[in-house]
Amino acid sequence: MPTKLYICGMSLDKNPSVIDAFEAIRALRKELASVKDELSSCKSDVSRLNRNNTHLVVENKSLKAEVTRLKAEIEKLGGSKVEKDSTNSSVPPTQQSIAGQAALRTRSLRASSGRPSGGQKGHVGHELARTDNPAKQEDHRVKTCPHCGAVIPEDAEQVCTMTTQVIDIAGILVGPEVTEHRRYTAVCPHCHRKAHAKLPSGSSKKTSYGPKLQALVIYLSVVQSVTFERIAETMRDVFCVKSFSEGTVKNILERNAKKALPVYTALLEYIGREEAAGMDETGVYINKLLCWFWCLQCEKYCYVFADRSRGIKALEDHGILPYLKRLILYTDRHSTYFTLEVSGHQVCLAHLLRNLQYLCDINKEQKWARNVQQVLRDAIHTWNESKCGVPGTEVRRSFEKRIDRLLDQDVGHYGKEFQTLQNGIILCKDYLFTFLDHEGVPHHNNSSEGAIRILKVKTKVSGGFRTQAGADQYACFHSILETAKRNGKSKFGTLYQLMIEDNPDSSFIETITS
Length: 514
Ligand SMILES: [Zn+2]
Hints:
This protein has about 525 residues and is α/β, with parallel strands linked by helices. Among the domains are: about 135-210, no CATH class; about 255-340 and about 465-514, no CATH class; about 350-445, no CATH class. The protein is about 45% helix and about 15% strand. Strands 3, 4, 5, 6 and 7 form a five-stranded mixed β-sheet that branches. A five-stranded mixed β-sheet has the order 10-9-8-11-12. Helix 3 (about 210-225) packs across helix 14, helix 8 (about 350-360) runs antiparallel to helix 11 and helix 9 packs antiparallel against helix 10. About 25% of the residues are buried. The structure holds zinc ion. Zinc ion binds near residues 148, 188, 190 and 191. Zinc ion binds near residues 145, 150, 188, 190 and 191.
């Protein structure tokens, strides 16, 4: 086989037209020129890309700087910052920020369930559904302009601008009744502003529960000490209120305690204006901590509150002290009561008689405790027998003389208990017979004890309160309802009244005490 000759990809033996060498060189030159062109175009491409690259490098650098700056800004705004605290560094808890300390206190030890908090998938939401066929419809037309007070003429054009539904108890086993409230709006002929009609208290834009249902929930919780779980079950079972939850019970108590707060705080002022009041305290667990439910009460009014302290600090923190100054206080012999600035004092004789009875029981031979009992009983008898007013100061002094003689006797030889009680009575000997010359002062503190006895039931049923807020809400309702009871009013009726009231204040106390 002969070797084939190629020039510029053309086979010479197959293409007779390129056998000429000059022709071949020309072709080569042409080829070279095209390669040169291509090279120059590549060079220009490279320098263009280089320029681009330089530009991108500069841009990248500036973007990186921007990212760093923005990250710092996010951190400054508290985005992903992790604070050093006592759990992840040697910073002592007291040197943490206030927010950090609060977070630490409230951080739950319970492991996360991995589910979001609140209602779970499949759980019927909090928002109550509207119904298409409410049992009742009530129209609320504007009568006076809320802006200028002008009367809206009866023939003025009114347009229904909002409807809301209220779900309330209708009866046992019949299911709740839905009332649709239709709010009308008119243009005021006087000030030309839009005047909306007023809706019943408690109804909002959303569907809500009515006053009977809310009053019953609070009644079961506060008056009957029923647990949230059982209240929810009662609402579902007895009143057929579908998907009524413990959370709803909590919300109803929370919302209405807030509403009733002005009534609750006004009670203190009413008690402060009386001549005499009794005080007592009882231990209750709040969030597993022993706390105290305090009670300040008189014939017509009752005020209770919860505090960690059993000392004067509780009374300071709750602003009670100013209301005590004008009062004659009747109490047991708990030392805090004798450090207070009050106008007078009466020690509970029922307590003392019981303490003395114990001494009579442990030593039947001695006469001392029996004699002290006799003086106290005689004083009570004299008080009972006095037909008009109180026996008076002379009578009081005669009893003080009798008790003084007994307190001077040496009882140490009967035993330690005798000495302790005698010393205790000596400390309060000026406060034994105040009731003999002051009207309105009882010789016992039974009414104070009665006002907070229910807390013991509450503790037995539910073991106390889960939160301080829950205890405060209870104190608010209990004070108002106990006041109502003392004035012959029904507790449930009072709650219902409270529910339908728009902004209850101190005048509400007038209503329940008249
Ligand atoms: Zn107007």
